[in-house]
């Protein structure tokens, strides 16, 4: 059976190769059925084997598709060698693992794929097994058409992006000589809630650096019947209050300046006006107050730090000997975690509170450059399948595999062609789904993008 290529709401004049589109959906169903969740019974290696079989059947040499076991997971690197070995490779990046899903919480079994009412349901449907299999099908279709890349194309999938990102770091280390990375787990488009038509599409050119800082206060302790002037819990509480009220200086980068300006018309009027005012003058106090008060925009105009965990004391009838707290920060690109931690310590202004960086699984990374070749290629590809739909950049507050490539100074861009309604974004949540009408235009989009950046 075909996957249903009539897509009146998405790309009316698009006719993707039926074989490729059917392959993408079939592979996605098989991948969703494999429970690729970290821990006992992790089937990520089986997903890697499934993807390898599709690549080899599509013309890749068996030796050019490597599966590397790591702990209970694995990663995959497939290489399509270009005609000019002097050129650095184009890397297509994704991941195979998914977050946990308990069948008792779902309306359907999360690991039994179902196509219903134009949607593919199942854990990983939107994050990101269908995107991954669509990219695989597009590559195979390019080979089938006789295309011969000048630049080597590498497609890779990490196996623990949703958790510790160990394989993500290993892959980036191996491929740090890449010319450019297309992270198909980032970016994407928004559909109008009523009409279902595309409103706009964004590519991700930067993400904030994740950091955890531990605050610690220690005291001699003693009997609670004899309070002392200094109490570890009270001292820590005062520090947390200062951090809770502290605001980092709002800022713009070349990428966020364009991103906020072009996103403004799609926000509610008051927020849109504040975004425009902030772009025009990043010191506009009224605009800043409006944007800081809104959870949807506070993280888009600078670094944020917030207390997330607190622990203190050891007995109900004893003075606390120790109190600790975790401060979680999302750092605007261009700043080092050590500098942000020092700024927080200065804001607290108490030598009795010690700060330490306890971040795991994250590294500092700057924004990717606004490369003309990428911008031209992505605008051309999107224009072929969604003519007239606005295209502009975005900065993510969360971490992705792009972080590890940017850490090695390799330009990485989130460039998924998937569109969905904001109200139907169930990534990491219950009853995850994605419109299968994305498959047909996604094939053509990927073909165009991969060709332009490898020819």
Automatic annotation (TrEMBL):
Claim: Signal is one of the keywords in the record: yes
Record's signal peptide: 1-20
Peptidase M20 dimerisation domain location: 206-350
Pfam family, one: M20_dimer
Keyword list, A-Z: Hydrolase, Metal-binding, Protease, Signal, Zinc
InterPro entries: Bact_exopeptidase_dim_dom, Pept_M20A, Peptidase_M20, Peptidase_M20_dimer
Similarity comment: family membership: Belongs to the peptidase M20A family.
Name the UniProt record assigns to this protein: Peptidase M20
UniProt organism field: Sphingomonas psychrolutea
